[in-house]
Amino acid sequence: MSERLLEIKDLKVKYGNIEALHGISFHVDRGEIVTLIGANGAGKSTTLMSISRLPPPEAPKVVAGGIFYNGESLLGWTPDKIVSELHLILVPEGRHIFGNLTVEENLKLATYARKDTPQDIERDYQRVYSLFPRLAERRKQQSESLSGGEQQMLAVSRALMAGCTFIMLDEPSMGLAPLLMYDMFRALKELNKEGMTILLIEQNANLALKFADRGYVIDTGEIVAQGTSAELMEDPEVKKAYLGG
Amino acid sequence: MEALFQNIINALQWGSFYALIALGYTLVYGVLLLINFAHGDIFMVGAYIAFGVSVFVLGVQGLNLPGWAVLALGVPLTMILTAGVGVTLERIAYRPLRRKGAHRLYVVITALMCGLILENGNLALLGASRKKFPELMEKTVWTLGNVSVTNLKVLVIFAAFAVFGILNFIVTRTRIGMAMRAISYDKFAIPLMGIPVDNIIVFTFVLGSGFAGLAGMLFAMSYPILEPYMGALIGWKAFIAAVVGGIGDIRGAFVGGFLLGFIEILVVAFFPSTLRDLIAFSILLVILWMKPTGLFGVARHQKI
Ligand SMILES: Nc1ncnc2c1ncn2[C@@H]1O[C@H](COP(=O)(O)OP(=O)(O)OP(=O)(O)O)[C@@H](O)[C@H]1O
Ligand SMILES: [Mg+2]
What we know:
By secondary structure, chain A is of the alpha/beta class. Chain A has ten helices and ten strands. Chain A has helices at residues 44-51, 79-84, 103-110, 118-131, 133-137, 148-161, 178-193, 205-211, 229-234, 236-242; strands at residues 4-15, 18-29, 33-37, 61-69, 72-73, 88-91, 166-170, 197-202, 214-219, 222-228.
């Protein structure tokens, strides 16, 4: 019996007066890789920012429905507590690394709210540097000067250093060369094998469905299809609209 | 030659006050990109708090503490209470505006108003009469040839350097210091690291105001006459020093503060003292003209 970790129920959110999600429902079980695919402006980032409880105006306001983590509603939570206490972490679209800090400082800052021992944290540094050796080579480098792909690695690494057990990734493949992308997804797969739950957003549906166990298709604020990755890949509608025929 | 040494010592002491106050401007700016124009008045409030604390402690019957003990008690108390004033301003004036996403212009105007409220609130509360700060330190003068230094001057200069060392350590080495630097770059991502943004902002105000309180106390000990407008001009000057040094960078505030101290003292050494501000600010203007971002500043792109 799989354990329901994240559950979204009839979620409606607004930016100002404009409704961006019109009542979506989906769930993620512990240890799963689930993907949310959809075109530009479908509401993918909006969904993840709602779950992270980020404040307006960048993020939307929840007007109806619920977000549950381990059965508990997240609506009263602050974004920092969701990270520090629930270990549910968003790697946002556009990476948002701290360009004025070095690679090392970015990682150290991510451990700000960790409550476990220095040994645990040290082990995570080793883990991150072995998953992404390029970051180890660039430890002392100002992160602004990293390449796009390296910045994405840093963004994922920060989430790991913050102690995440559930990672939400908003288009991690954006701007990555194929080789780096392959590296990134291999690393994510490895993390999943060790127990990390993953919710992945992608425009590249081919890539996402190959990687994920299950998926949902979102279109202008509504879920229009769902199923296992295999099912979605065979779905004629999905094929036509998202997989290039 | 001896005159030069004497001037250098005086400039170090005078620059210390500018540096201590400029650090507060630069810290808040570095985190919030807000020019906290009330900061000079927080310094003034700090001096009054130091006065209140010292008079109170000296007045407690049967305690009869020696001056140095009053000082040892007064410094931390003054710093804590002044930090409280800074944090209160943040809470009741700046935070609500931030929550509503107000344009920075309105926050700066609010800061100016807060400064005026502190000045006039003080006036209303304590009246216009000047206060005489009690003597807490037995004055010792060391002389070497014609150069003389008092223990108080040494204390002031030492305090400025120590504060700089502490702040530099915090900002470059600790996680909270990294968070302070990271906020101005990307506020959106801070909570995603598990960091409550407001805590970092409060901490910044604690540091800036606490050290303004220290400056207020040391200033009151050095120039023991207090009046409600004592923070206005020195606050403006320290702000300018922070800008010339490169606002947002604590090295800039420190260097800018001492630079202004040196320029002022040296101008007076060679010209009539009425020309002091005219010449000093002309020099600073030329520096900004050559390097508009200030000595340590880097051009920063507009961020959220
Ligand atoms: N801060 C905002 N204020 C107002 N409207 C917004 C804001 N952010 C997004 N929207 C709107 O909400 C809708 C969903 O946007 P969202 O960013 O979630 O799309 P997305 O699926 O992530 O698209 P993309 O693939 O381009 O990243 C769009 O119509 C968008 O214009
Ligand atoms: Mg998006």
